[in-house]
Amino acid sequence: MFTGIVQGQARVVAVDQRPGLSTLVLEFPEDRVQGVEIGASVSINGTCLTVTRQQGNHLYFDAMQETLRLTTLGDLKEDHRVNFERAARIGDEIGGHLLSGHVHTTATVRRVEASENNLTLTFQVPKDWMKYIFAKGYIAVEGASLTIGTVTEDTFNVHLIPETLRVTTFANLAGGDQVNIEIDSQTQTIVDTLARMGYDKPPQR
Length: 205
Known about the structure:
Pathway: Cofactor biosynthesis; riboflavin biosynthesis; riboflavin from 2-hydroxy-3-oxobutyl phosphate and 5-amino-6-(D-ribitylamino)uracil: step 2/2
Helix content: 10-25%
Function: Catalyzes the dismutation of two molecules of 6,7-dimethyl-8-ribityllumazine, resulting in the formation of riboflavin and 5-amino-6-(D-ribitylamino)uracil.
Lumazine-binding repeats: 1-97, 98-194
CATH architecture of the largest domain: Beta Barrel
Number of helices: 3
Largest sheet: 6 strands, antiparallel, barrel
Keywords: Repeat, Riboflavin biosynthesis, Transferase
Strand order of the largest sheet: 1-2-5-4-3-6
InterPro entries: ATP_synth_asu-like_sf, Lumazine-bd, Lumazine-bd_dom, Riboflavin_synthase-like_b-brl
Oligomer: single chain
């Protein structure tokens, strides 16, 4: 499990593409690889990946074809930067909200609005997933736990403070970019349960 509190950025050193599989080699800050073991889980742009090899502060991850299809990891190139978070441990503070690292869908950046002390990003989401997105609710974008701002029929926005921009890759996003989305699991459970009970249907007249 992850907390949605991004711990920093890693740099893509290499991408080894083979049929049905890509191996990502990422360079991490020196102080963020201490105690890493083979088999450890790390969230990379919100996607839970397993460490398969370590060379100093370079960690290796294998991403299967299905993972590449459902996420933005297949678009990564050398020198791209990614958000990372190592798996939470029992007793860790949950500063965001609990995440599984299983990406539900991707969204498109539709608007980037910069002001003096924050940045507002607007994302367009496939309509099938909008039923789980509510103003003031939680959502994970690129592995970061964020509070949802305004919601429309097929978009939502988030407001980012300078510290979030410093730690994450959000400052580099531009219109048309794709991002990974993980829906809040509790919200999804409530919405789906109500739907099974028929409460998602308009009242009959």
